[in-house]
Amino acid sequence: MKQQLAVGIDIGGTNTVFGIVDRRGNLLCDGSISTKKHTEIPLFVDDLCKELSKLIDQAGGLDEIKGIGVGAPNGNYFKGTIEFAPNLPWKGIIPLANLIQDAFGLPAVLTNDANAAAIGEMTYGAARGMKDFIMITLGTGLGSGIVVNGELVYGHDGFAGELGHVIVNPEGRQCGCGRYGCLETYVSATGIARTMRELLETHQTDSLLRGLPDDQITSKSTRDAAVQGDKLALEAFEYTGKLLGQQLANFIAFSSPEAIILFGGLTKAGDLILRPTVHHMEENLLEIYKNKVTVLMSELKESDAAILGASALVWEMKD
Amino acid sequence: MKQQLAVGIDIGGTNTVFGIVDRRGNLLCDGSISTKKHTEIPLFVDDLCKELSKLIDQAGGLDEIKGIGVGAPNGNYFKGTIEFAPNLPWKGIIPLANLIQDAFGLPAVLTNDANAAAIGEMTYGAARGMKDFIMITLGTGLGSGIVVNGELVYGHDGFAGELGHVIVNPEGRQCGCGRYGCLETYVSATGIARTMRELLETHQTDSLLRGLPDDQITSKSTRDAAVQGDKLALEAFEYTGKLLGQQLANFIAFSSPEAIILFGGLTKAGDLILRPTVHHMEENLLEIYKNKVTVLMSELKESDAAILGASALVWEMKD
C-alpha cells in the first residue's frame, strides 16, 4: 500500500529538523540542517531538499509519501507562508509551502509550531480521541494550539491561538512583541529565569543561585535548585504556576476543553510546575468548570515531537 | 412547502417570550408569559404550551413548523437542560428541551441565551456569511457566543463561552458567581452603574448624577448624563470601554475572529461605548491582528432578537 508515510519538517531559530513518519507515529529516519547559516531562502530550500531527498530514497521513494508537513514560527496555515518571524534569518513573507511543494511535487502544508504540536498530540499522543483541548508549549516563549470540535482553530486569518501574548498585566514585563505584560514574559523558560533573578534581587533569603552571573540563572538552574529544596527557586515555580493556572481558568471559560496539554522544556520540572498550575487553575475556575478539565503532560518524546507534529498535518490534509 | 417556520423561545428571569419566525427572520407572531410567577416547572411548561399552541394554530398548524429553539440562561446544548440558573425560579437541573419536545412532538433544541444570539446574528443579522466571530451581549451581565469555522463553540461539556467570567483583576469587584474581578462586574449595565457610583464617591468633580440615591444611578442615567457632556459619566464609559477593549484584544489572540458583534442595553450608548472599546482593543492587539477585526453593533431589533436567536437554532439542526 502506497502513501503510508509523511514527511515532517520543523523550522527552529537555530536548526531545522526533518524526518519520515508512519501512520502510527514511528519516526523512521531523520536529519537536520542549520537554519541560522542559511540567510538566503533559496539556498536554505536547496540544502533542505538535498538532505530530505536522501531520506525519502531510503524510505522507498516519493511514491511512498503522502505529503509534507511543516511547523514554523509565525507560520500561516491558510497561505502556507512564514510571516515576519523575529527569530528566523529571513525577513518579510516567505511562501515556504509553495517552495517545498514545487521542489518535490508533493503536497505541502505549513502551520505554526504550536499548532503542529497540537495536531501531533491529537494524532499520536496524549490527546488521541479528544475533540476539545488546548496545547500549551513552554519553551523560550509560550505557544498554543487550540482544538475545537476536533479541528484546529486557525481563525479568520490563520493566526489564531497566540495565548502567549494574552496580556496578564498591562504594567508588567516588556515582551519581545513590543508590548508589556504578555503571559510568555512570565510563563516560559525565559520567564521563569526572569522571575528567579527578580526574586534574588528583591529577597534576602539564601539561595543556591545567589551570586551567580545573570546568564547562569536559567530555567534549568532554577529547576535544579528547586529539586534541592531551594526556597526562592520553589517560589519561582509557585509564581509561574500561579500565573499559568489563573490564565488557564480564563482559557477554559472560552472553549471549555476536556484537557490542557503541556509540552516543552519547562514541563521537565514535573510536579514542581504541574502542582501549582492545577491548584491555581481550579481555584480560579467558574463553578461549572471545576474538576472537569485534566492537565496532562505531552506523551511525545521531546526530541521527536516537532517532527511528529509537523508530519501529522499530512494526515489531516483533505484528499 | 412545509416546515418553513421555526419557533423561538427565550427564557428570561422575569418573562418568557416566544414567537414564530420564517427562514428570512421575519417574526410572524409572538407572545409572552411570566417566568417568575411559575415557580413549578410543570405549570410553566403547561402554560407555555397553551399560549404557544395558539400561535402555532395561527401560523397554519404543527406541519408548518420544523422545530423549536430555546435560549435560556445556563442552558446546556448537549443535554437540552437548564442547570443551576441563579436568576430563574427553578432549582437544580431542568430537562426543558425534552419537556417541550414531548409536549409538541416537535424536535426541540436549547442553548444559552448568548449562544442563541450568536446563531441569530449569523442567520439573520450582522454576522451573515461570517465563519469566525465573537458575539458579546451586554445586559445585566456579559454573555458571549463564539463561532469558529462556522460552528458555535460548545466545548467538551456544552458550557463554552463564558467570557463574562474571565477574571480581569483577582483583587477586583465581587461577582454574582462568588469570585472576584470577573469582566461582567465592570462591563455590563450593572457594571457601568457600579463604576459611576465609585467615580462619584472618589471624585469631587461636579456631576448631573451627584446627590442621587444609588438606585437612580443606572446605566441609563449614566448614558443620559454622558450625552449631556457630564465629565464623570463620560469617564465611566471610557473606563468600561477600556476594560472591554483590553479583553477583546485577548479574546482575539484566542480565536482570531473576523468581527466582534456587540448587543444589548449598553450598546444603546453607541459611540460612547464603541469608540473607547475599539481604541483600547487596537492599542492592545498583537501586531499581526491590528486593523483586521471589525467591531459591529448587532443588526437585530432588540425586542425581537432573543426570539430570532432561539428560532435560528432550528435551522442549524441536523435533519
Quick overview of this protein structure:
With 319 residues, the first copy, chain A, is of the alpha/beta class. The first copy, chain A, folds into 2 domains: 5-121 and 303-316, ATPase, nucleotide binding domain (Nucleotidyltransferase, domain 5, 2-Layer Sandwich), CATH 3.30.420.40; 129-298, Nucleotidyltransferase, domain 5. Chain A is 36% helix and 20% strand.
Overview of the molecule:
Two copies of one chain form a homodimer. Chain A has 319 residues and is α/β, with parallel strands linked by helices. The first copy, chain A, folds into two domains: 5-121 and 303-316, Nucleotidyltransferase, domain 5; 129-298, 2-Layer Sandwich (Nucleotidyltransferase, domain 5). Helices cover 36% and strands 20% of the residues of chain A. In chain A, the strands form three sheets. Chain A has a five-stranded mixed β-sheet with strand order 3-2-1-4-8, sandwiched between helices. In chain A, β1 and β2 form a beta hairpin. The mean pLDDT of chain A is 95. The interface between A and B is large, with 43 and 43 residues.
